[in-house]
Amino acid sequence: MEIQENIVNRVANSGLLTFDLASLKSKAEVAVYDIKDNLFQGLILREKDFRAFVKENDWSKYASKNVLITCSADAIVPTWAYMLLANKLEPYVNELFFGDKKTFEDILFERALSNLDIEQFRDQRVVVKGCGDIKIPESAFVTFAYKLSKVAKSIMYGEPCSTVPIFKRTT
Fold first, then answer.
1. Cα 134 to chain centroid, rounded
2. How confident is the model at residue 14 (pLDDT cuts 50, 70, 90)?
3. Which has the higher per-residue pLDDT, 12 or 158?
4. What pTM was computed for the model?
5. How far apart are the first and last CA of the chain?
6. Would strands 162-168 and 154-159 be described as parallel, antiparallel, or unpaired?
7. Residue 102 and which of 25, 28, 41, 95 are 20 to 30 A apart at CA?
């Protein structure tokens, strides 16, 4: 039996380009503003009380953060209340959103993907990293695959040593 002297890293020499969507995750701190805390008896919003709160509150504590406005209570909140919050938060926040946390994450990744230079992947064999410490919304994988399909030579999912083929350009 012959012992091979040189260990060859076939993955490193494969010409695969690995891209981790987690690199697109916003670094800004996330803060959730739940309007339920402003509801009278957890049911209704009193305009006079709410306007006083909005006027007196220190909104600077949201400086440079991504802020999600939501209402976790089963209550009818008038649209103007959300607009008033948006107006007061605007000078301070990095990004402002309304909705649930999943939609919030989807939108952040969509924005990051819209700013990504897809040309860097032209005619490349791309592996989209599948596992990691950061949860990536499925919508980000869908959007990225859609964009990559226009320029990449091939798309795979997973890790370079174990991939699932997604797409291969035949021409």
1. 10
2. low
3. 158
4. 0.75
5. 44
6. antiparallel
7. 41
